[in-house]
Design brief:
Structural class: mainly alpha
Number of domains: 1
Order of helices and strands: HHHHHHHHHHHHH
Number of helices: 13
Shape: globular
Radius of gyration: 17 Å
């Protein structure tokens, strides 16, 4: 089923992308939750892309921050399983879920706002443009496979079940994401326009998938 935001979700996310994303208290809650739940993390991406015509500056700043934190938590050359499980677990709820917003929630968004908020054109274009760069980091469990890289949630789940994923390989991937996201976020600044590559842009898709999960992206792509 193709992804679609409710009126209430659109209303909340509209104000979120207008500036509340930069509020210190909001940022602290986003740190604790590693962003938002899967639905609302991708909903944020849909809204950011649709209303800013693919100019993903706010999302790039947020996920640069989160992935740099993730890289720091992996930290040592030989990361410890207990540190990963503790550090990557959410310490707070999703902002929208806590406020009661979901697929059926009502809000005060006007018709034009809703039409734009449900327009998947820009996020699909971005995802398809960069697909060859991010497809190798898709979490296997998220898409019904055992093999492959793990997102944050399924990495924690594997460790909780006593499995032994290659933490060094995951640490290198996360560090690479953080580095490319730093370049992508910097490219929005005056004097740095045009300094990022398609692969740097793909790091934003990878970061959202790693933090919150991948299945919803494929619902958005509807394939």
């Amino acid at each position: 089923m193709t992804f679609m935001l409710s009126n209430g979700e659109i209303h909340f996310l509209w104000w979120f992308i207008q500036g509340s994303i930069m509020s210190p208290s909001t940022r602290e809650r986003l740190w604790k939750g590693w962003g938002m739940c899967e639905r609302h993390a991708w909903g944020f991406m849909v809204m950011e892309a649709a209303f800013h015509q693919g100019y993903m500056h706010g999302a790039a700043i947020l996920y640069e921050d989160l992935m740099c934190r993730a890289a720091h938590l992996f930290g040592a050359r030989w990361p410890k399983a207990w540190r990963i499980r503790s550090g990557f677990r959410e310490k707070g709820p999703c902002l929208l879920c806590e406020a009661g917003y979901g697929p059926q929630s009502r809000g005060a968004a006007g018709e034009k706002l809703v039409i734009t908020g449900r327009d998947l054109t820009e996020i699909r274009q971005m995802a398809r443009l960069t697909m060859q760069d991010w497809s190798g980091t898709v979490c296997g469990i998220c898409i019904g496979q055992e093999n492959g890289f793990r997102c944050r949630k399924h990495l924690i789940a594997d460790l909780a079940m006593g499995k032994r994923p290659n933490l060094e390989a995951h640490a290198r991937r996360v560090d690479d994401m953080a580095t490319r996201l730093r370049t992508y976020a910097c490219s929005f600044r005056y004097g740095f326009h045009g300094t990022s590559t398609r692969r740097d842009m793909a790091a934003l898709i990878e970061a959202v998938g790693w933090c919150s999960g991948w299945k919803t992206l494929f619902d958005i792509l509807d394939e």
